[in-house]
Write a structure and sequence with these properties.
By secondary structure, this protein is of the alpha/beta class. The protein folds into 2 domains: 17-48 and 323-428, Aspartate Aminotransferase, domain 1, CATH 3.90.1150; 54-321, Aspartate Aminotransferase, domain 2 (3-Layer(aba) Sandwich). 35% of the residues lie in helices and 16% in strands. The strands form 3 sheets. A 7-stranded mixed beta sheet has the order 4-10-9-8-7-5-6, with helices on both faces. Strands 1-2-3-13 form a 4-stranded mixed beta sheet. A 4-stranded antiparallel beta sheet has the order 11-12-15-14. Helix 2 packs antiparallel against helix 11 (306-321). The longest helix is centred in the last third of the chain and has 20 residues, at 324-343. It is globular, with a radius of gyration of 21 Å. Bound molecules: pyridoxal-5'-phosphate. Pyridoxal-5'-phosphate binds next to helix 4. The site of pyridoxal-5'-phosphate has 13 residues, from helix 4. This is Aspartate aminotransferase family protein.
């Protein structure tokens, strides 16, 4: 007689994880894996931190759960006070949630509430081709992964789409030598005008596209130009920092690379580094004051979770104390250089790109034409399986901006990865 079967593992012979330390994982047979993907680009401070485990236990022992509308918890108060100065948002207000999709949903609601409170009925949100923003209804609506969206189209709303700054297959091949930011900003402006500026509530994008498109770093002029267009039409900028937040790209937040100040910012994965399902929606003081005056209601049962805040605070202190954001910048340069050395000349490697400890290798059938492999060959997926056999864990994705489907190997190791382990990752992939 068998009991219930865990859905994801059903019918698959997966190794059973026994524990982890830093960038290493061990299964129950004692096999070691080097985790170059941080799970799903989640784990920043490394596996097996006794410090975070102790903080979680201490909070749970004292009190695990109180309802956020009845009590504030000291861990949450200290958490947001410590986090505040690090956020690239003016006069930031933090609304905690339990993950990335919840954070995106909250930001979408806030954008709509903001305009309604100002007497404007704006409901269109503009996303980018190929983007991924989560799996709930609103998050899927603003995502640009057509394959993921297709079955749910009748349910989805009115999101519009603009170009992605995907330089390898750029929508503007003859762009200005200083970068194609101006062309992307023009394309965005055309979408805003076509939708009617009075209808457009917000633009949502990752500062550096994460796993979905494979670490696409936009040209230096992209974000300033995009932000200028949005603000000229009264459109709020939502930075999706679910993957890029908390040091992943070698700065505290991806927005910091360009000094842009989004009106709303969402974060999750690295916030509690996988030790707790913590997410955050952050809005500027102006957005906060406007939506609060109109009676905006925030709250899920587990928003404001005291244990989640304790986990987030412990992670934040470790990131600061151990200089892990700076380490991510250094190790990232090393990883990029070593990937280039190992794979740069390979006939099926089209592009190697990234920033900090978020890197991707785009595989192609033909380097000259950039033609992708047929989908049915599942090349990246098979390489990830082979690397796992060699003890290196990678992440694969099928980037699909500009109408192409690609094969991407994505790298997002814990920020605590050592120089020797970086070399092992580059050689093992
Ligand atoms: N936004 C981005 C950029 C993501 O990468 C993800 C998840 O991969 C999400 C949102 C959704 O986060 P979650 O899976 O925690 O709901």
């Amino acid at each position: 007689m068998t009991g219930a079967v865990f859905s994801r593992a059903a019918g698959r012979d997966l190794p059973v994880v026994a524990g982890g330390r830093g960038a290493e994982l061990f299964d129950t047979t004692g096999r070691r894996y080097l985790d170059a993907a941080g799970g799903a680009i989640v784990v920043g401070i490394g596996h097996g931190s006794a410090e975070v485990a102790d903080a979680i236990a201490a909070q749970a022992r004292s009190v695990a759960y109180v309802h956020g509308s009845a009590f504030a918890s000291p861990s949450l108060t200290e958490y947001v006070e410590t986090l505040g100065p690090l956020l690239p948002v003016d006069d930031p207000y933090v609304y905690p949630v339990s993950g990335g999709s919840e954070a995106v949903e909250t930001a979408l609601k806030m954008a709509r509430a903001y305009h309604l409170a100002r007497g404007e009925d704006r409901s269109v949100v503009i996303g980018r081709t190929g983007a991924y923003h989560g799996n709930t209804r609103g998050a899927l609506d603003v995502s640009g992964r057509d394959g993921l969206r297709a079955p749910y189209l009748p349910w989805l709303g009115s999101a519009a789409r603009t170009t992605s700054p995907y330089e390898y297959r750029c929508s503007f091949p003859d762009s200005h030598p200083n970068g194609c930011g101006a062309q992307h900003a023009e394309a965005l402006e055309q979408v805003i005008v076509a939708q009617g500026p009075q209808n457009v509530a917000a633009f949502i994008a990752e500062p550096i596209a994460g796993a979905a498109l494979g670490a696409c770093v936009p040209s230096a002029d992209y974000w300033p130009a995009i932000t200028e267009v949005c603000h000229r039409y009264g459109v709020l900028v939502i930075a999706d920092e679910v993957m890029t937040g908390f040091g992943r790209t070698g700065r505290w937040f991806g927005s910091d690379h360009w000094g842009v100040r989004p009106d709303l910012l969402v974060a999750a994965k690295g916030a509690a580094s996988g030790y707790w399902p913590l997410g955050l929606t952050v809005c500027s003081g102006e957005v906060h004051d406007t939506i609060q005056k109109a009676g905006f209601v925030h709250g899920f049962t587990y928003s404001h979770h005291a244990v989640g805040a304790a986990a987030g605070l412990a992670v934040l202190k470790i990131l600061q104390r151990d200089g892990l954001v700076e380490a991510a910048a250094e190790r990232g340069e090393q990883l990029g250089a070593e990937l280039q050395k190992e794979l740069g000349d390979h006939p099926h490697v089209g592009d190697i790109r990234g920033r900090g400890l978020l890197w991707a290798v785009e595989l192609v059938a033909d380097r000259e034409t950039k033609a992708p492999f047929p989908r049915s060959e599942r090349v990246a997926e098979r390489i990830v399986a082979a690397a796992k056999e060699r003890g290196v864990l990678l992440y694969h994705s099928t980037g699909c901006a500009n109408g192409t489907e690609g094969d991407l190997l994505v790298f997002g190791p814990p920020l605590v990865i050592t120089p020797a382990e970086v070399t092992e990752v580059a050689k093992g992939s």
